[in-house]
Amino acid sequence: MSELKTVPHETAGTIDTLKEKASTAAHATSDAAHDAAKRASDAAHEAAQRASEAAHEAAKRASDTIETNPLAVLAGGLALGAVVGALLPRTAQETKTLAPLGKKLAAAATAAAATARDVGKEQLTAALPSKDGAKEQIRAAFGTVVQAAKDSGKAAVKG
After folding, report:
1. Own/partner pairs, 23-31, CB within 8 angstroms, 24+ separation
2. What is the pLDDT of residues 8-57, one digit of tens each?
3. Checking phi first, is residue 129 left (phi over 0); if not, alpha (psi -120 to 50) or beta?
4. Taking a C-beta distance cutoff of 8 angstroms, is the pair 121, 129 a contact?
5. How many Å apart are CA 34 and CA 30, to the nearest integer?
6. CA 159 to CA 157: how far, in whole Å?
7. Angle at CA of residue 57, ends 56 and 58, nearest 5°
8. By the 8 A CB rule, do 65 and 73 touch?
9. Cβ distance 96 to 88 under 8 Å?
10. Backbone angles phi, psi at 128, to 5 degrees
11. Residue pLDDT, tens place only, 107-157
12. DSSP assignment string, 96-111
């Protein structure tokens, strides 16, 4: 009968040991899960911070480009608009409505280019000396150099 009395006591000790091991494992699992969640949260926060900084940097570069070279940005926008416009199909109504305007714009642009070319030629002609004028300027400059050489030679002989 003594064997029956000792069995429950040994079973109780085994149950206590199992409870303790289960509790320790639960705490270890909880701590590991908490640590993993903390690392994931920190990594997500860091990634969001880097993305925010990259977005701010890209916005600053775009702003700086617009400030330093607004005409290039404008030209790029116009070119992009022209490409998009060229890729879109025209409707019969657009062709009918815009054809006269296109002809007028082409004629005006041709006239403006011809006027600019003529004015440019006139300006270049006025800015450049004539052939005879250039020869006279060279003769005068050469004469001045020759006279200076003569004068300095005379001064050296007297001196």
Report:
1. none
2. 556 767 888 888 888 888 788 888 888 888 888 888 888 888 888 888 88
3. beta
4. no
5. 6
6. 6
7. 90
8. yes
9. no
10. -90, 140
11. 888 888 888 888 888 877 777 767 777 778 888 888 888 888 778 777 777
12. HHHHHHHHHHHHHHHH
**Joined tokens for residue 74:** 């404008």
Q: In the Cβ-directed half-sphere of 112, how many Cα atoms lie within 13 Å? A: 6
**Would you say 137 and 129 are in contact if contact means Cβ atoms under 8 Å apart?**
yes
CA distances from 136 to 130, 140, 148 (A): 10, 6, 18
Amino acid (1-letter code) at residue 118: D
Distance in angstroms (rounded) separating the CA atoms of residues 94 and 86: 13
Residues belonging to the chain: 159
